[in-house]
Design brief:
The chain is mostly beta strands. It is built from one helix and five strands. A hairpin with a 2-residue loop joins strand 4 and strand 5. The longest helix has 4 residues. It is globular and about 45 Å long.
C-alpha cells in the first residue's frame, strides 16, 4: 500500500465511490510551454459506508484527502482515512 495526500475538488458519487478531480501542471521542455490539465481519481471511505462526510460534502468543494492507494477490480482507488474540506 502507498500513502497519498491529495488536494482537489469533489466530483460525482458512483455508488460507494466518489470522484476527486485534481489539477495537474506539467512543463513541456520541447515546446517551452506550461500545460494545464486535471486527473480524476476514485475515492472510498475506509469504513466503506456512504453516510460519512466524504459523501455529505457538496460536489465541487475543495478537499484535502489523506489515504492510501489500493487496487479494486482492476481500478486504482484512494481509500480516504482523513478528510478536510469546506
Amino acid at each position: 500500500m502507498i500513502a497519498v495526500f491529495v488536494y482537489g475538488k469533489l466530483g460525482k458519487v458512483r455508488g460507494s465511490l466518489r470522484e476527486i478531480i485534481v489539477d495537474r501542471v506539467k512543463y513541456d521542455r520541447d515546446r517551452d510551454k506550461t500545460l494545464f490539465g486535471s486527473d480524476t481519481f476514485l475515492l472510498r471511505d475506509w469504513t466503506g459506508k456512504t453516510s460519512v462526510p466524504l459523501f455529505k460534502i457538496m460536489e465541487g468543494k475543495n478537499v484535502a484527502i489523506k489515504g492510501r492507494l489500493v487496487v479494486e477490480d482492476g481500478a486504482t482507488v484512494i481509500v480516504a482515512e482523513h478528510i478536510a474540506g469546506s
